[in-house]
Amino acid sequence: MKLLELRHLSTHYVSARGARVTRAVDDVSLTVGEGETLGIVGESGSGKTTLALSLLRLLPPAARIVSGEIWFEGEDLLTKSHREMRRVRGKRIAMILQDPLASLNPLFTVGDQVAEPLRVHEGASRGSAWARARELLRAVRIAAPETRVREYPHQLSGGMRQRIVGAIAISCGPRLLIADEPTTSLDLTIQAQYLQLLRDLQRDRGLSMIFITHNLGIVARMCDHVAVMYAGRLVEAGPVARIFSSAAHPYTQALLESIPRMADGRKRLTAIDGQPPDPVALPPGCAFHPRCPKVLDRCRKEAPPEVRVAASHTSRCWLAS
Amino acid sequence: MAGPVVEALHLTKHFPVRGGFLARETAVVRAVDEVSFSIEPGRTLGLVGESGCGKTTTAKLVLLLEQPTAGMIRFEGRDLQTLDRTMLHGYRRSVQAVFQDPFASLNPRMRVDQIIAEPLVTHERLGSGEVAKRVARLLELVGLPDRSADLFPHEFSGGQRQRIAIARSLALSPKLVVLDEPVSALDVSIRAQILNLLRDLQAQLGLSYLFIAHDLAAVAHMSHTIAVMYLGRIVEIGDAATVAATPKHPYTQALFSAALPSHPGEKREEIILAGEVPSPLAPPAGCRFHPRCPHAMERCGREEPTLLREAGRLVACHLYEGVIPARS
Ligand SMILES: Nc1ncnc2c1ncn2[C@@H]1O[C@H](COP(=O)(O)OP(=O)(O)OP(=O)(O)O)[C@@H](O)[C@H]1O
Ligand SMILES: Nc1ncnc2c1ncn2[C@@H]1O[C@H](COP(=O)(O)OP(=O)(O)OP(=O)(O)O)[C@@H](O)[C@H]1O
Ligand code: SF4
Ligand code: SF4
Ligand SMILES: [Mg+2]
Ligand SMILES: [Mg+2]
Known about the structure:
The structure holds 2 protein chains of 2 kinds.
Chain A: E1 2-14, E2 21-33, E3 37-41, H1 48-56, E4 63-72, E5 75-76, H2 82-91, E6 93-96, H3 100-103, H4 110-122, H5 126-139, H6 145-148, H7 158-170, E7 176-180, H8 188-205, E8 208-213, H9 216-222, E9 225-230, E10 233-239, H10 240-246, H11 250-258, E11 306-310, E12 313-316
Parallel strand pairs in A: 3-8, 3-9, 6-7, 7-8
Antiparallel strand pairs in A: 1-2, 1-4, 4-5, 9-10, 10-12, 11-12
Helix pairs in contact in A: 4-5, 4-7, 5-7, 7-8
Chain B: E1 6-18, E2 26-39, E3 44-48, H1 55-62, E4 70-75, E5 78-79, H2 85-94, E6 95-98, H3 112-123, H4 128-141, H5 158-170, E7 176-180, H6 188-205, E8 208-212, H7 216-222, E9 225-230, E10 233-239, H8 240-245, H9 250-258, E11 308-310, E12 313-315
Parallel strand pairs in B: 3-8, 3-9, 6-7, 7-8
Antiparallel strand pairs in B: 1-2, 1-4, 4-5, 9-10, 10-12, 11-12
Helix pairs in contact in B: 3-4, 3-5, 4-5
The complex binds adenosine-5'-triphosphate (2 copies), iron/sulfur cluster (2 copies) and magnesium ion (2 copies).
The site of one magnesium ion (MG) has 3 residues of chain A, from helix 1.
């Protein structure tokens, strides 16, 4: 069963007076099944956050969804009113951001903040919302939740704050959880704790998840499917095991090759030449062509279409078609 | 073989801070506590450990940006304390640094040639023709085009700025370069370029590195020796491949098991530690790791373990002390 399906979604940022257009998300199609975890990987500026914000319709004013459909639980979210979207957010789709401090209010206690969505979306009384807040803190493995509910965000460590944000996100029992780089500010052993927590929550509650990251290791550990973005386009998507063992797109292949592996010791890395393109002046044709080791003549002029290379495995590359 | 370029012996740095409820009360952050290591010519020492364990402070001590509370640094066998001014000057030239943030570390108002030439101009009285030649050679070394010399830092990408910072660090032909998180601010597709460049420069110029990073696979890739720090102490130090493949200290084991896999098929034992790193203001008594250690014994809360030889490296853990030394 598909919980979420994006069809040909394009989101652009338009500068004042329309002088500059950034095609931050360009013709992206993807699906997320019930209970599945999709990883979205890509370098800085490839459009990952814009894609997530488009889904939630939380885009900044300069952004425009210029085309596409976003089907979630059988409805196109793009046809919903702002009021209806507010109910979808927080209740059926929740999001965890990279910086936990940005999502917590320094002036309110932890208990108030975890209880708030329950009061807003479910009309729970203060007492029952606080009781459930304590339960949620226990679920995200905060020790001594009875005392923690009365504390303020600055009294907590980074790892604890991120778990509080997780508690808020799952408070109303969402079907889909979007996590945008949720562990980049955490230390390794704390990251391991948090990833395990997310996996347990997902299994216990049957959540679907979208995991946004630039770290392929997180994809390897956490995800069933992966979508690779480059310059606003989804260049390759498929089951994680298949992408890691037989990636079809030269960018994915190069990215996998360029990462140091513990077992390889001091073996030389295969680096990717050049640098990510300037999003307001993308190269013509395939945006990866100036860096692609397999570039063909045609790649410089024509953008490749998305091609199915195997069951639920697609690649946007002329070599695949 | 020549001896080590730099040696640290029981190097210690305590920062006094105001603590407690009364501002007069002072406490001490034991940022670096009795740390010893040596770096041989042409070799890399990788320093790993979680935030706040003392990596940057160790680097600053080596760079003489901080004064040690105790312990000593030896440069080519000589205690820095015994060096005269000229020799100390020589040490400063021989030890250079590249930091994480290429955006913050370059003066935005200077052109690239001025940035790279600055150490040459202040330390060596060279004519402008000679300086230009050296700058051109340094740009070539780090793989930047000649015309970069006339541009400003903002005209470069993150990876290119890090190349500029590396060129500058090499201007005085140092022996040791301290690399504190040199690629963490860079895009994933750029990191391998810089790591390869650093490896090539090491081979070409015989440089030694002190390499600090959170990415354990990158440290394993760059280093000959790895030292693992926890709350200011080195808990394990030894050959990089050995430590990475068969860590012995329970903290090293947990740390390396928390490193993300490079492939979904890579199955590793996952050791999930409870709790978080305690405050360095009040490190736990005995073994500093004991409140989180899955193997902690009664003794661990009382006695601090010392580094002892175990399976080809040094480990500070009571698990590996076969015989309990008699106490008098
Ligand atoms: N508010 C905005 N106004 C104009 N352009 C924007 C805005 N936000 C993002 N962009 C541009 O849209 C593109 C995609 O940005 P986005 O933040 O979605 O990337 P990302 O993949 O999330 O990157 P990162 O890994 O750095 O978080 C970038 O080129 C960025 O400069
Ligand atoms: N100038 C200072 N005054 C007081 N405390 C300090 C000072 N510099 C560092 N510390 C403390 O010393 C400890 C070690 O800090 P250090 O910056 O060396 O850690 P690190 O291992 O480099 O961490 P990170 O991985 O976050 O860079 C920390 O607890 C830090 O708060
Ligand atoms: S379309 Fe051409 S340039 Fe683009 S990835 Fe494929 S081969 Fe390389
Ligand atoms: S000394 Fe004890 S507490 Fe410390 S690491 Fe070894 S077993 Fe664990
Ligand atoms: Mg983002
Ligand atoms: Mg540091």
